[in-house]
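Quick review question:
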C-alpha cells in the first residue's frame, strides 16, 4: 500500500504522519525535530509554556532539523493569542489548535502565511473550521489520549468528516502502528496524527518512570477522568487519578490562572508536570486507549521505519 501525499497549505511532508502535540512539555524540540528529520511533521506543545520557553523550543528545533515544525496549542489557555503570535514571529511552519475554537487565529495565520489546522470531533465543527479558513482538520476520536472532544470512535466520525469537507482530514485517536494507519487511509484520511507511540521514543523528554508506566499498562488501567478544563481526559490509573475519581483531588496551591476557565478541582497543569518529571503518583499520565499494545522504547527513526514497513505491507 502506498502512502498518499499530505498537503497542508504549501507544506508537503515526505510521510503523512504528524506527531501529536502533548502537553505539558512532553512534545518538545528534540522529539519534534526527530520526527521532522524522519519525514513527518514534528509538533511542539505550546500549552503550559511561557513565551520565552516557546521561543527557545522553536529555535532549538530549527537548529536540529530543516524539516517541518509546528506547534499545538489549546484555545483554553489564557496566553493563547500571545503564544500564537510568538510562534508566528518565530516563523513556525503550521499551528494546530483545539480545546475550544478561535475564529481570530485563521486571520492571524492567513496574514502571516501560516497554515492553521483545527482539531475537531464532528462534521459540524469541521465545516465551521473549513469555512473559517482552516488548511486541514484533525479528526480526533475517543481513542485519543489527553482531553477528548467526543465519546465517539475515530472510525465513526472519520467517514462523516471526510464526506462533509474538502480539506485534508488527518485521523487521530488510538493509532499506534502501520495497520492502524492503513485502516484510516482506506476510510479517506489524508494523514494521521500519532501521539502515544512517540512518548515511547528515546527522544521524548519525559521521565523514565512516565515511560515505564506506559510499558506496564494493561487495558484496564486506561480510564476516563474529569479535568478542570471542562473536558474529559483519557489517562492511566494511579493514586492521583483514583483520588480525582473519588472526589478527593489534591488542593490547588498558588494558582496562576493559566486557563481561561477552570473548575479548580485540581491543577491539571501541575498534575501533568509532576508526571513528566517522574512524580507519577502525584500526577496525571495521559495516554491513548491502545497504549498497552506498545512494548518497546525506540528511536524515532526506528519507529518511522517500522510504521512504513507495516503500512507498505498492507493490501491496497
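Suggested answer, residue by residue:
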Amino acid at each position: 500500500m502506498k502512502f498518499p501525499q499530505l498537503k497542508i497549505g504549501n507544506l508537503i511532508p515526505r510521510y503523512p504522519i504528524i506527531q501529536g502535540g502533548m502537553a505539558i512539555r512532553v512534545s518538545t524540540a528534540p522529539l519534534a525535530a526527530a520526527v521532522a528529520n524522519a519525514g513527518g511533521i514534528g509538533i511542539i506543545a505550546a500549552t503550559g509554556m511561557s513565551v520565552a520557553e516557546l521561543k527557545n523550543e522553536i529555535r532549538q528545533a530549527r537548529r536540529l532539523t530543516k524539516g517541518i515544525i509546528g506547534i499545538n496549542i489549546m484555545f483554553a489557555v489564557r496566553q493563547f493569542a500571545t503564544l500564537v503570535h510568538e510562534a508566528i514571529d518565530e516563523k513556525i511552519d503550521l499551528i494546530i489548535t483545539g480545546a475550544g475554537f478561535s475564529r481570530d487565529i485563521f486571520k492571524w495565520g492567513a496574514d502571516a502565511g501560516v497554515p492553521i489546522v483545527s482539531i475537531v470531533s464532528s462534521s459540524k465543527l469541521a465545516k465551521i473550521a473549513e469555512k473559517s479558513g482552516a488548511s486541514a482538520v484533525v479528526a480526533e476520536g475517543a481513542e485519543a489520549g489527553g482531553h477528548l472532544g467526543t465519546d465517539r470512535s475515530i472510525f465513526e466520525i472519520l467517514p462523516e468528516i471526510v464526506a462533509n469537507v474538502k480539506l485534508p482530514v488527518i485521523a487521530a485517536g488510538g493509532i499506534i502502528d502501520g495497520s492502524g494507519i492503513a485502516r484510516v487511509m482506506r476510510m479517506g484520511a489524508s494523514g494521521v496524527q500519532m501521539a502515544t507511540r512517540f512518548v515511547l521514543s528515546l527522544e521524548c523528554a519525559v521521565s523514565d518512570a512516565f515511560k515505564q508506566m506506559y510499558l506496564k499498562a494493561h487495558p484496564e488501567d486506561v480510564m476516563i477522568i474529569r479535568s478542570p478544563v471542562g473536558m474529559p481526559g483519557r489517562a492511566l490509573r494511579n493514586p492521583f487519578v483514583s483520588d480525582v475519581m473519588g472526589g478527593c483531588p489534591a488542593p490547588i496551591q498558588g494558582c496562576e490562572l493559566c486557563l481561561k476557565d477552570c473548575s479548580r478541582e485540581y491543577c491539571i497543569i501541575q498534575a501533568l508536570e509532576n508526571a513528566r518529571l517522574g512524580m507519577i503518583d502525584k500526577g496525571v499520565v495521559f495516554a491513548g486507549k491502545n497504549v498497552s499494545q506498545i512494548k518497546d522504547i525506540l528511536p524515532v527513526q526506528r519507529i518511522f521505519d517500522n510504521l512504513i514497513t507495516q503500512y507498505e505491507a498492507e493490501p491496497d
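Why it works: The mean pLDDT is 93. The longest helix spans residues 51-64.
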